Fold each of these.
Amino acid sequence: MTEKYAVVVVGGGAAGLSAALVLGRARHRTLVIDAGEPRNAPAAHMQGYLTRDGMPPAEFLAIGREEIARYGVELVRDRVVDVTRGEDLTEGQGEDFTGAQSDGFTVVLAGGRTVRARRLVVATGLKDELPAVAGVAERFGRDVLHCPFCHGWEVRDQPFGVLATTPASVHQALMVSQWSKDVRFFLHTVAEEELSDEDLRRLAAAGVEVVPGEVAGLVTENDRLTGVRLADGSEHARSVLFLAPRAVPQTGLLEGLGAELHETPFGAYPVVDATGLTSVPGAWAAGNAIGFAEQVVHAASGGYRAATAIVGDLLMTDLDAVAQV
C-alpha cells in the first residue's frame, strides 16, 4: 500500500530541515526526501548565522538531521521525479479526525517508492552555473567566491578580482570594495561601453580598477589562487576572485503542478505569500526555491514559517470537517 504522510518535504537543506523540525514537533507524520546536493557544499564554512558562524555546512546539516529524527521525522536519500495533485487523503490523527480529508499529493521517487501527503513543502533550492573559465569550477567556494557577506571577512584586505559576466556585475565590484581597497574589475566578455557613466563614476570613487579584455584562466601555485590570466597572456596578481554564477532555479516540480511563476533578473521563481504558500493549494516553497538571495538563515526562517502555516491549515481543515459531520 502507498504510504501516507501529513507532509512531504522535498529537499533536506536548511529550509527543508527547519520545516520538518517544526512539523515533527507538531506531531505530524513527516517525510523529508533529500537528493544530497546542497548548494553550499563547496564552501568550507558558513557565516552570518547567529550562534553558527563559521560552522561547516555539512556539520550544520548533520545536526539538523539528528534533531528532526528525535521527533519521528523520516528522511530518505532519494530524488522526487513526479508530483501530482488531487488524491483525497486522510492523516488519521484519531477517531475525531478520521473523516477529515483534503486534496493531497502523490509523490513518486526515483528509487521506485510512491508516497502520498496532505501537504507539500518544496525546498529544492537552485543550482549555480559557473562561467566557463578554466580553473573557476575547481576553486569555487575556496578562493573563487560569489558572496561577500558569506566570505568577505575571511579574505579581507587581500587583492580581489571581480569577473564581469553582465554589466550588472558592477554592483558586485562595488560591494566587495567594502572588504578590500585593492579591487580589479575584469570586464571579461563585457565591453567597456556597456558600462554607464554612473557605473564608471562609482567604480572610480570606490577605487576599483577596470581591466578590459577577456579572462582566459586562473593562475595557481601550491593549490592557491595567485592570479588571473587574460587572453592576451598578461597576468594580474590576485588571491581572491569574486563572480556571479547564473542562478538556475529548481522549479520543475512546482511547474508540473501548475504553480504561477514570476520572472526576476535571477530566473523564474514561484509566486508565494508571506508564509511561502504557492498558487497551488497545499503546496509551500521555502529557501532558494523562492529566490536567489535566500541565505542559510533566511532559508531556515522560511521553512519555519511554512511549517507553522501548514500546522494551522491542517488543524482548521480537520476541525471544519468534524464540524460538518
Amino acid sequence: MGEIRASDVVNAACDALVAGLDTPGLRMLAACTRAEADYAVHDLLPAVLDELGITFCPTGSETGQEAAARALARRMLAGELTPREFTFRIHQRHGHELPLTERLAELDDEYDILEYGDRTSDQADADVTAEACRLAAHPTVPVNPTDSPS
C-alpha cells in the first residue's frame, strides 16, 4: 500500500526464512536484490502471501487502505510514530474519503488550529491515541479482500 519500501519487503522475507517459514515464493522474494525489489516485489508478493495463508489486499482497494491504516495505528501505538505524524500520514493518504479514518483526518485538521483554540496538543494526542486503539482493535481480516479499487 506504499507504506514501506520494496527492499523492506525483501528484508522481511529474509527474516521470515530465518524464523523458519519456508515456501518457494518466499525464497524467491528473499533472493531479490535491492535493484530487483522495486519491480519484483509487486509481482511476487501476492503468491507469497497466498502460500503463507495471509490475505492479500489489492493496492488501491478499500480493504487494503483500511489494513494499511490499521498497520499505521499499531506502529503509532508501538511508539514508531507520534500521534501528529500518524494523523498527518492518514490525512495525506486518505483525506476525508475513507470512513474508517475520517475521525483521524478531523484530528489532523485540529492539530493545525490548536494555537487558536482552547485544546492542547496533549488533549489532541490523547484523542488520536484512543482512535488508534480503536483502529488497531478493528478486525484485521477483510470481509472481501478482492474488492476493486475505487
Amino acid sequence: MNVAGLADLLASACLLAGALLSVAAGIGVLRLPNALDRMHTVTKPQVLGVLLILLGLALRLRSPTHLGMILLVGLFQVATAPVTAQMIGRAVYRSGRFDRDLLDVDELADE
C-alpha cells in the first residue's frame, strides 16, 4: 500500500467517525430532556464530528486551495461553537426554562 492509499484509508475512517459523532449529536438533541443538556450535545460531539469530517476531506483532497478553505471552516467552527453554547445557556437561564434542581451551583442567582 502506498502513501496515497494509506491517506485514503485514514480519510475514510475520519469521515465515518465524524459522521457517527454528528449523528450521535443529532440523536442527543432529540432525546435529551432539557435545553441545558441539549446545549452540551450541540457543541461537544458535533464540533469533533465536523473536525473529523474536515480532516478526512483534507486527507482525501490534498490540494493547497482546498486545505486553506478546510482550515478556515475548521477555525470558524471551533471559534463559534462555544459562543453559541454560551448564548443558548444564557437565553435558557434568563427565560427560566430549566429545572433549578438540576444545577449543582447557580452563580447567577440573586442572593
Amino acid sequence: MRIYYVYILLCSDNSFYTGMTNDLERRLLEHKSGKSKDSYTFSRRPIVLKWYLECSDSRDAIQYEKKIKGWSHRKKQALIEENWSDLVTFSKNYSQNKESRM
C-alpha cells in the first residue's frame, strides 16, 4: 500500500508552505537543497517541517492539501499546535471572528 503525505513547512520568513507527496523524506531534501529555483520555498530557506498527515489514498491527500492551503496562517498554526479550540474558532466566518477580536 502506498502512503501519501500532506505537510506544512515553516519558512524563514515565517510563512507556511503546504504540500503533498508520496515520499516525504525526498521532498524535504528537495525543499532544503533548493532543487527548483521557481519554487515558493527556494528564497525562503531554511525550512522546517512542522506538521504532516499520512493518507492511504492520493485523492484524500489532495483534498486535505487544497483545504489547508486555503486556511489562514493562524488556523494552520492552531493545527500544528493541536490547539483544537482555536482551530474551531478560526474555522468560523472570518468577518465574525474579526469582529469578536475587536
